[in-house]
Design a protein that fits this description.
This protein has five helices and 13 strands. By secondary structure, it is an alpha+beta fold. It has a single domain, classed as hypothetical protein yedk fold.
Amino acid sequence: MCNNYRLRGAAIAIAEAMGVPFEADITLPPHDLFPKRPALVVRQAAAGGQAAGREGVMLQWGFPPPPGVRGPVTNVRNLASPFWRSALATPARRCLIPASEFCEWEGAAGAKRQRWFRVPSQPVFAFAGIWQPQADDLFGAGGGGVFALLTCEPNALVAAVHPKAMPVILHPEDYQRWLTAPLAEVLPLAAPFPTQLMAVDLV
């Protein structure tokens, strides 16, 4: 489960990588991002019912939990679950989550170390995500909506540290497809990112 990632870089570089208009007064969140806190996500904007490019918005990380679950739901594991199906099937509810690296923990209890995974050729890449409007402030973090990121089977690099799952990292050429295509066309994107295109750092 990925519950910590970073977004580094100048606002203009992040905007360019995500294909959104640059706003000189944009306020980015802290580099380290955790559940229940606001983070930048990118979604398809709409004007008059017609798609009008992409927009960057600040939303809270974590969907309201179902009954019996304590914390926010941050990762989308079962794509067939009714809990996620409506959002996944609606292109307007899909989003890109800009990131520079993500963390998984390695080692025995009491001696765990952070492993940070990145894509060297992309200083800013995107996780596949979904979002939903949220009128109330669930976690005291502000914002008018919530988001969660998709996970999939890990590639060999991530599996050596975290064998259960890894975030779905999209190739740039698939960004628009994720945001606009029918569900059947985007489900194949929930696949492990190529091992040879990633690197890992020990902290």
